[in-house]
């Protein structure tokens, strides 16, 4: 039973981190109609940058602030150089972001190296919870993810720029006619998507490994969350990520992790058979 | 105020505007009429920079609109109410109203708009998509007025509106015009256009083919029938 509780809790924590990453994927898809195959690699770049900050400064906490800022900058640069030229060509976006994915992975392999590294969490120790000793860092990771997700929704719903993002997402032409700089909104949205994935990388690096292929596993999970949550539905994406990871965590306590992943895919297929537009489709956009 | 000189526009390879020329003077209300598909909406979108002008010139108070980014055109003093109203359904009425402003409006400005459109005040927190067609049209006009435009461009503002509310929309447009705001109106409802406008341009195949004062046009049954297929 302890294993089920532990893996279930790990699933929720992991689900919150995935939610943070998948939110970025969802806003990029919702606003720019870009199917971003490189999104998992944005996460991987976040883990590598976190490692780099730790190596350079000896202080992991700095990574929580510095890496999202660097991610924002890289995201803006990628939007300008890769995404902008292929805007309005969804099929081309798959090819372009696949190429971007290879470039990011190979750049990391050429500089950081091919060997995976484990990072020591900045908070060590355990705390008694539900009759077992649970890692404090995992609870901290969940708290940071919840805080970042809340901050994102606050930005989206309480600031002028967030309102503009929602307007451009619905009708870019009308938004432009009302004086909204849609071009700038696209760039900032993509950059925010990268920054969120990179922050997810900083949060997750001490739980998982720092590896140039670290994003490969994350990407399908993020896509599953976005699809089950209802394409472009941000709140649905968060809920679906947590539900999926919890489901997979509990499954993993009874079966092999591969079987657990197959279970998640089956769950997604069932959801799509019953509700082809996702569980939360038609809620908010 | 606004002058289009031999403006041409394309959708891809399709040539839509074939040298469109028209003029709107200060405080004037102008109608742009024509059958479906002659390029009226494209002409308005070209003024707003949403369809690029491939030739010709669009001047507004000395600024060449076809040479500035589309999102800066509203800031020049042009409000645009598109066909279908263009309300953002997931944004609240208040968010829709303030969408074109870089920062929150002064309370006085907001109260002024709400005094004019009391229904919008009652529904300020509601999603734009939950309003009726007439209320959405009021919102579309109000969010332009909050930007204090010099020219208001309206594309079929009475389309899809309950007949009982058409009169209200007409009154509102006339009231806006009386405050000195120029109007450029595209309408399928000929009576609305003839009532509101002092001058009418008739369009066919992407070009202006006839221009006349409203009174004069009302008497010219043959022209009305030839270009609009109606007799008033």
How would you characterize this protein structure?
The complex is a heterodimer of chains A (285) and B (232). In chain A, helix 1 packs parallel to helix 5 (136-158) and helix 9 (214-229) packs across helix 10. In chain A, strands 1-2 form a two-stranded antiparallel sheet. Chain A has 285 residues and is an all-alpha fold. Chain A has one domain. Chain A contains eleven helices and two strands. Chain B is 34% helix and 27% strand. Chain B has nine helices and ten strands. The A-B interface holds A 160, 163-164, 166-167, 170-171, 173-183, 284-285 and B 48-50, 69-75, 80, 82, 86, 88-91, 95, 98-100, 102-104, 143, 147.
Could you name the key traits of this structure?
heterodimer, A: 285 residues, mainly alpha, B: 232 residues, alpha/beta, Rossmann fold, six-stranded mixed β-sheet, 9 helices, 34% helix, 27% strand
In short:
By secondary structure, chain A is mainly alpha-helical.
Blueprint of the fold:
The complex is a heterodimer of chains A (285) and B (232).
Chain A: H1 2-32, H2 39-57, H3 61-83, H4 90-111, E1 126-129, E2 132-135, H5 136-158, H6 160-170, H7 172-177, H8 182-204, H9 214-229, H10 234-254, H11 257-274
Helix pairs in contact in A: 1-5, 1-8, 1-9, 1-10, 2-3, 2-4, 2-8, 2-9, 3-8, 5-6, 5-8, 6-8, 9-10, 10-11
Chain B: E1 2-11, E2 14-24, E3 29-33, H1 40-47, E4 53-60, E5 63-64, E6 78-81, H2 93-98, H3 107-116, H4 118-122, H5 133-145, E7 151-155, H6 163-178, E8 182-186, H7 190-196, E9 199-204, E10 207-213, H8 214-219, H9 221-228
Parallel strand pairs in B: 3-8, 3-9, 6-7, 7-8
Antiparallel strand pairs in B: 1-2, 1-4, 4-5, 9-10
């Amino acid at each position: 039973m302890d294993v089920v509780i532990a893996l279930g809790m790990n699933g929720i924590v992991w689900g919150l981190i995935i939610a943070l990453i998948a939110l970025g994927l969802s806003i990029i898809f919702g606003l720019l109609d870009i199917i971003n195959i490189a999104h998992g690699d944005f996460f991987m770049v976040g883990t590598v940058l976190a490692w780099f900050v730790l190596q350079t400064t000896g202080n992991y906490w700095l990574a929580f602030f510095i890496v999202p800022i660097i991610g924002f900058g890289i995201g803006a640069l990628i939007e300008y150089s890769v995404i902008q030229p292929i805007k309005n060509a969804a099929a081309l976006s798959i090819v372009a972001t696949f190429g971007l994915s290879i470039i990011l992975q190979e750049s990391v392999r050429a500089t950081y190296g091919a060997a995976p590294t484990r990072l020591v969490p900045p908070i060590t120790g355990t705390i008694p919870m539900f009759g077992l000793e649970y890692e404090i860092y995992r609870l901290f990771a969940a708290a940071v993810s919840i805080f970042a997700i809340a901050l994102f929704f606050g930005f989206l719903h309480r600031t002028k720029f967030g309102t503009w993002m929602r307007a451009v997402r619905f009708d870019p032409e009308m938004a432009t006619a009302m004086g909204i700089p849609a071009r700038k909104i696209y760039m900032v949205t993509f950059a925010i998507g990268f920054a969120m994935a990179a922050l997810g990388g900083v949060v997750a690096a001490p739980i998982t490994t720092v590896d140039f292929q670290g994003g490969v596993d994350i990407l399908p999970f993020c896509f599953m969350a976005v699809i089950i949550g209802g394409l472009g539905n941000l709140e649905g994406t968060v809920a679906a990520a947590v539900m999926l990871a919890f489901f997979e965590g509990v499954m993993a306590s009874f079966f092999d992790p591969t079987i657990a992943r197959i279970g998640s895919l089956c769950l997604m297929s069932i959801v799509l058979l019953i509700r082809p537009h996702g569980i939360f489709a038609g809620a908010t956009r | 105020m606004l002058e289009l000189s031999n403006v041409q526009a394309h959708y891809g390879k399709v040539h839509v505007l074939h040298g469109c020329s028209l003029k709107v003077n200060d405080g004037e209300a102008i109608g742009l009429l024509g059958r479906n598909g002659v390029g009226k909406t494209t002409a308005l979108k070209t003024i707003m920079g949403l369809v690029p002008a491939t030739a010709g010139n669009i001047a507004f108070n000395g600024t060449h609109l076809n040479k500035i980014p589309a999102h800066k055109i509203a800031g020049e003093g042009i409000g645009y109410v598109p066909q279908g109203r263009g309300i953002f359904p997931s944004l609240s009425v208040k968010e829709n109203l303030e969408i074109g402003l870089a920062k929150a409006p002064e309370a006085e400005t907001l109260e002024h708009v709400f005094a004019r459109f009391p229904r919008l005040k009652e529904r300020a927190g509601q999603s734009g998509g939950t309003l009726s067609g007439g209320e959405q049209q009021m919102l579309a006009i109000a969010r332009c007025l909050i930007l204090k435009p010099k020219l208001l461009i309206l594309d079929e503002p009475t389309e899809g509106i309950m007949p009982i509310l058409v009169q209200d929309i007409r009154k509102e447009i006339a009231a806006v015009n009386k405050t000195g705001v120029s109007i450029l109106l595209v309408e399928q409802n000929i009576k609305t256009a003839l009532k509101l406008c002092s001058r009418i341009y008739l369009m066919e195949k992407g070009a202006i083919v006839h221009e006349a004062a409203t009174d004069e046009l009302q008497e010219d049954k043959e022209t009305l029938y030839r270009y609009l297929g109606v007799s008033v």
